[in-house]
Design a protein that fits this description.
about 210 residues, mainly alpha, Arc Repressor Mutant, subunit A, Tetracycline Repressor, domain 2, 9 helices, about 75% helix, elongated
Length: about 210
Amino acid sequence: MVRRTKEDAEETRHQLLEAAQRVFVEKGVSRTSLQDIAQAAGVTRGAIYWHFKNKAELFNAMMDSAVLPMEQAMQQIGHDAGQDPLAELERAMLWTMHSIESDARTRAIFEVATLKVEYVDELLAVKQRHVKCYLDGTQQMQRSLQDAAARRTVALAVPAAVAAHGLHALMVGLIHTWMLDPSAFKLVAVSQTAIRTYLAGLGLKL
């Protein structure tokens, strides 16, 4: 009975996350109420509060289901001295692009995150989560760029911190533009060309 109850709770949580994704895409995050999500999930509003204290926590849980695997991929970079840090960095970045381009659920969640959210009221907590992801990501990029430059015995064209911010902005810009019109270009193919061109400008080549 305990196991069944736990499984039921997990199933309800999953239903809420899936419903939130659908309603956020349709209405935008700020215009979506918890009642809207409960109704879409076929549960009571009380069921939401059993799993999430507010809309921001629900939103972050939805984002984590798509973003955490990508963050974990970035965190695995640099642990194997036998690997080229630049090749590892490119693989992690292109894996992110591939996940967005090929997986409908991941794409929908990124659509919400890039086009359907406003950092106001209770969603200020969501902004904090995004800032942390940005800082963690750029710090890892900076380490990878520094390691790659040291391995190749070259001096970067700009400080590694500046290069990391630019590389992160390149990724975000590509994702955002592609989300506006996925038919405009192939996200992975264009990203690889853009990333390699950017790295070459820094003095780094794969």
